[in-house]
Design goal:
Blueprint: E1 8-13, H1 15-18, H2 27-45, E2 50-55, H3 58-70, H4 80-105, E3 112-115, E4 118-121, E5 133-139, H5 141-151, E6 155-157, E7 163-167, E8 172-175, H6 178-186, E9 190-193, E10 199-203, E11 209-211, H7 218-229, E12 233-237, E13 244-245, E14 253-254, E15 257-259, H8 260-268, H9 278-289, E16 294-298, H10 303-307, E17 313-316
Parallel strand pairs: 1-2, 1-12, 2-9, 3-9, 4-10, 12-16, 15-17
Antiparallel strand pairs: 4-8, 5-7, 6-7, 10-11, 13-14, 16-17
Helix pairs in contact: 2-4, 3-4, 7-9, 8-9
């Protein structure tokens, strides 16, 4: 094994990597983005590493909800769990085709599998009584009132920028397709799963699954998936090259290598606010507390360099320091 390259790896890709700002989202644009993403990740796909990727779906899910709103008088709106499934299918098609094309051109005989993923949540999760996660587009107050009346959406004003649909964001408890994801990865496929945090479902008293109106945090699902699969190394891709403390201040300092105990202390000092790096740091801490060994946080273009310790921020379990 090449130094620093783990035998098994899970990579969490943000939603803006699959649908960046500034594009209209035409099919041609989506496949162009997919091709760039495949080219960037090709060095990782070339490695002899079991590889699982998760991804966000925020921009795409927002467009699906907008279609619901615009066409509500002509087409029956889809429930939020079905919207999540639609986003997984659309993004999955683009990523599968783009990755397979890149691998074929490089002469690499490796399959790409997209796994439609259901994630079990607790029906009694307190998040269902307190929707806080904003999704989709911004609306003015009149539009927001109309959507509440016609769609049953809960709308809240968001920092002076307009009104948005807010939904519950319960904790992921189990991933239904865990065994199949692990089997496909062990067989050598590049596995893409857990899109948008997964489709939220609950089990009834008979054990049957039912979708629920919620959106699960993508990084929390990524952590749970890695822990369930026994993967030691987690990579969280962000737009910034490294995690920093005192961000935006003259004393700003990037973090290169830190331990779990050190990152906990920085979090306790208020270094990672909820609206920026906070959720990713929370995810990293949870992963390490539940048996993970190393979390790498940085830019997608630095992925291989991060594995070699040449870029990004590395957070390791205390017993590996």
């Amino acid at each position: 094994m090449t130094e620093g390259i783990p035998p098994r790896l899970l990579i969490a890709i943000g939603g803006n990597a699959t649908h960046p700002e500034g594009i209209r989202g035409t099919p041609a644009e989506q496949f162009e983005v997919g091709a760039r993403l495949a080219t960037t990740l090709l060095p990782l796909m070339e490695l002899n590493t079991e590889l699982v990727l998760t991804h966000g779906n925020g921009p795409v899910a927002g467009k699906i909800l907008m279609r619901n709103a615009i066409a509500r008088d002509r087409v029956t709106p889809m429930s939020l769990d079905v919207c999540g499934g639609h986003s997984q299918g659309g993004i999955g098609y683009v990523l599968m085709q783009s990755f397979e094309n890149a691998l074929r051109r490089a002469g690499i005989a490796r399959e790409v599998v997209y796994m439609l993923t259901q994630v079990v949540v607790d029906a009694d999760d307190p998040a269902f009584d307190n929707p806080t996660k904003p999704i989709g587009y911004f609306y003015d107050e009149e539009e927001a009132r109309a959507l509440t009346q016609e769609m049953g959406w809960e709308m809240r004003e968001d920092s002076g920028r307009g009104w948005r649909h807010v939904v519950p964001s319960p904790e992921p408890r189990h991933i239904v397709e865990t065994a199949m994801i692990g089997t496909a990865a062990a067989a050598g496929a590049v596995v893409i799963a857990g899109g948008g945090g997964g489709i939220p479902v609950v089990r009834d008293a008979e054990g049957d699954l039912h979708g629920v109106e919620a959106v699960i945090d993508k990084d929390r699902t990524s952590v749970l998936m890695a822990n369930l699969l026994g993967i030691d190394d987690l990579m969280i891709l962000t737009p910034v090259p490294r995690v920093a403390i005192d961000f935006g201040k003259p004393t700003q300092r990037p973090l290169e290598q830190v331990t779990l105990s050190e990152i906990r202390r920085h979090r306790a000092d208020g270094q990672f606010p909820p609206g920026s790096m906070g959720p990713k740091i929370d995810a990293a801490i949870t992963f390490l507390e539940n048996g993970g060994k190393r979390v790498l946080i940085g830019r997608i273009e630095d992925a291989v360099a991060m594995l070699k310790g040449e870029a990004g921020t590395s957070v390791t379990a205390d017993d590996l320091a």
